[in-house]
Amino acid sequence: MTAARVKTRTELRGQRRRRGHGCWNHLLVAPLWPKHGVNLGTLLRTCDAVGACMAVPRRPWVPDALAHGNTLRHRQCVHWIDGRVERWLARQRDGGSAIVGVELTDESIRLADLSAARRRTIVLLGHETTGIPPEGLELADITVEIPMVGTGHSLNVAVAGSLVLYKLAGLC
Ligand SMILES: C[S@@+](CC[C@H](N)C(=O)[O-])C[C@H]1O[C@@H](n2cnc3c(N)ncnc32)[C@H](O)[C@@H]1O
What we know:
Number of helices: 6
Strand content: 15-25%
Bound molecules: S-adenosylmethionine
Order of helices and strands: HEHEHEHEEEHEH
Oligomer: single chain
């Protein structure tokens, strides 16, 4: 058997879109209580890969963090949230969007049991230290947990968000 060959950049470019996707408004990742800019940049790159958008509060440091973290050259789809994030989340839910909380709770389903999104879905991520606050969890239709067998309490938030985005996008 011949060894597998890593695809060249030219081959990969031929398989990709020529421009960033517009706003499909179907899948939105929502790190509503962000702490570290580097995680936002990582999540934005996953958004490009799976065709998702990001919804994030307009804190003074966030636009810079996103501009810095966006290693892709084109503009990304970002929905800026002004005012209280819980109010924004409640409006999304009232408007018919499904809210999937990514969190280790006693009611969470396992990632393997999560189906691809069939309607507009908001993927809610928690604060890097304190997680999703109770008022956020109250608005979630379901919560999903990524099983772990190691010693750490939790995964990095951008890793957790990326895994769930891939599942909801139906790409794995
Ligand atoms: C670093 S964790 C929060 C800290 C966590 N409460 C702890 O005590 O370690 C940041 C966020 O990542 C997500 N997260 C991390 N690991 C996860 C897992 N295994 N399953 C689901 N969500 C996870 C959640 O959104 C969580 O709020």
